[in-house]
Amino acid sequence: MSILWQARFYTTVNHLRNLPDLTVPELAFAGRSNAGKSTAINILCNQKKLAFASKTPGRTQHINYFSIGGAHVGQHRKDPTIVEEIRALLVDLPGYGYAEVAGSAKNHWNELLGSYVRNRDQLSALVLIMDARRPFTDLDKQMLEWFAPTGRPVHCILAKADKLNRNDATNALRLTRSVLASYVDQDGKPFPYTAQLFSALKRTGLEEADAKIQQLLGLDVLPADVLSELQVDYQPDADDAFDPAYDADTDIAADRSAP
Predict the structure, then answer these.
(1) Which burial class, exposed, middle or buried, applies to 162 when counting CB atoms under 10 A from its CB (0-12, 13-18, 19+)?
(2) Looking at the domain assignment, is residue 16 inside a domain?
(3) S-S: 204 plus which of 35, 39, 199, 243, CB 3.0-4.6 Å?
C-alpha cells in the first residue's frame, strides 16, 4: 500500500494570498486540459474522485490541495485532519489549453499558475502530465519555462500511453527525454528532469510514478511508527478504491469551490 493512498482534500484556493501557510513540501501536478491529469492523480491515490475535471471549459479554475498524513486513509473518512501531522501536500493545478475560455479567465490562470510555480518556496517538484500522443504543446513548454529557473525537479508523465503501439510509445518517451535534456543551468548542467510512460487504464507505470513522487516529497522512507499504524488501521473501502475504467478527466463533477 502506498502512502499516497492517505491523500484527502485539504483546501482549494483561487488567489495566491490564500495559499496554505504550512511549511511541508508540496508537489504540483500540471497539465493541459484533458491530458489525463485528474485520472493520474486518482489512480496514484487509489480514489475515484479525489481530483476531478469538468467537460465545461474553464470550470475548474482553482488550485486544489490534498494532504498526506494527519488523518486516516481515504476521502470518505470524516475524522478531522490533524494539521500538525501532515507530511506533504499534493497540489492539483488548473488545467490549461482550452481555446474556448474567456480572455479574462486565461489571464487569471496565467497569473495564478505562473506566480505559483515560480515563487512558491514550499514547491519541491513539478509533475507535468502530457498526452503521450501530443507531448510538449506550447503551453507545456511555457510551464517548463516558468519552472526551470527554480532548478527544482520535474517528472513528466506521458499519460494515455495505451493509445500508442509499443514503437510509438518508445519514440514518444525518447523524444520527451531528449527535449528535457536540453534544459540546462548556466554551467551547462542538465536540470533534474525525468520522464516515463503511464496508462491509468492498463496501470502501466503506476509503481514507477508512485516511487518517484514519494522520493521527490521525501516520503520514500517511512518512520517505523507510521508504517505500523498504516498496517494496523487501514482497511480499504471497496466503494472508494480507484476503478481503472473510471476517467475523471471526462467526468462532470461539482466544483468544490462552488457556493
Answers:
(1) middle
(2) yes
(3) 199
- Statement: the pTM of the whole predicted model exceeds 0.70: yes
Cα 25 to Cα 232: distance, rounded to the nearest angstrom: 26
Q: Is 110 exposed, middle or buried (0-12, 13-18, 19+ CB in 10 A)?
A: middle
Domain that holds residue 131: 3-250
175 inside domain? yes
Do the strands 88-92 and 8-13 form a parallel or antiparallel pair, or are they unpaired?
A: unpaired
- Residue 176 · residue 195 · CB < 8 Å: yes
Per-position pLDDT tens, the chain of length 259: 899 999 999 999 988 999 999 999 999 999 988 899 999 999 999 998 898 765 554 446 789 999 999 876 555 567 788 899 999 999 999 888 654 555 666 676 678 888 999 999 999 999 999 999 999 999 899 999 999 999 999 999 999 999 999 999 999 999 999 999 999 999 999 999 999 999 999 999 999 999 999 999 999 875 555 556 656 554 555 555 666 665 666 554 444 544 4
132 within a domain of the structure (yes/no): yes
Q: Where would I find the beta strands (DSSP E) of 70-215?
A: 88-92, 123-131, 154-159, 193-197
CA 21 – CA 32 distance, rounded (Å): 27
Q: 60 and 124 in contact (C-beta within 8 Å)?
A: no
The answer to the question of residue 200 being in a domain is: yes
